[in-house]
Automatic annotation (TrEMBL):
It comes from Pseudolactococcus carnosus. Residues 1-142 form the N-acetyltransferase domain. The keyword NADP does not apply. The lineage of its organism: Bacteria, Bacillati, Bacillota, Bacilli, Lactobacillales. This is GNAT family N-acetyltransferase. Keywords: Acyltransferase, Transferase.
C-alpha cells in the first residue's frame, strides 16, 4: 500500500468513496472542487492506494480562527468498507498529524455526525477526544 498526495485522476474514486459517507455529489462538480483544492496550499488531500485502486482518503485544510492557534481541520476521512480495520484510516490520520507538526500546527480538529458511533470509537482509538457537543447550521442561498 502506498500513501500519496491525491491527483486529479483520482476524482472518480474519490467520488465513490465520498458516497460511502452519504455525500452523493456529481463527478463534474467534484472534479472542479478537487482541482481547486489541489492548487490550494492550505489544503491537503492524501490517499492510500493499493494495486492502482484508491482505498481511502483524508482531506484537511488550515483552520485559522481569530480566537485560537491555527489548527488542521479534517474535512473528510473515508476508507472503502472492504478494507476497513486494516490500519488505512489510522495511517491517513498519522500522515496528517506529521504534516501538521511539520507546519508548526499543534492540533487537529474534526467533526463527526452524532450517529456515527463506529467512527467516534475509531477517532478515540487514534487519540482524538470529543471536547463539546454542538449543532451544525447551514443556510441555503438561492
Amino acid at each position: 500500500m502506498q500513501l500519496r498526495l491525491a491527483e486529479l485522476a483520482d476524482a472518480k474514486r474519490l467520488q465513490a468513496l465520498s458516497s460511502l459517507l452519504g455525500y452523493s455529489y456529481p463527478l463534474e462538480k467534484l472534479t472542479v472542487n478537487l482541482t481547486t483544492s489541489l492548487a490550494d496550499t492550505k489544503q491537503l488531500i492524501l490517499v492510500v492506494e493499493h494495486d492502482g485502486l484508491v482505498l481511502g482518503y483524508c482531506h484537511a485544510e488550515y483552520y485559522e480562527p481569530l480566537y485560537a492557534d491555527k489548527l488542521l481541520n479534517v474535512l473528510g476521512l473515508v476508507v472503502d468498507k472492504s478494507h476497513q480495520g486494516q490500519g488505512i484510516g489510522s495511517a491517513l490520520l498519522d500522515a496528517i498529524a506529521s504534516y501538521a507538526l511539520e507546519q508548526g500546527i499543534r492540533a487537529i480538529r474534526l467533526n463527526s455526525g452524532e450517529d456515527r458511533n463506529a467512527a467516534h470509537c475509531f477517532y478515540e482509538k487514534n487519540g482524538y477526544i470529543s471536547n463539546k457537543q454542538q449543532k451544525n447550521f447551514i443556510k441555503r442561498l438561492g
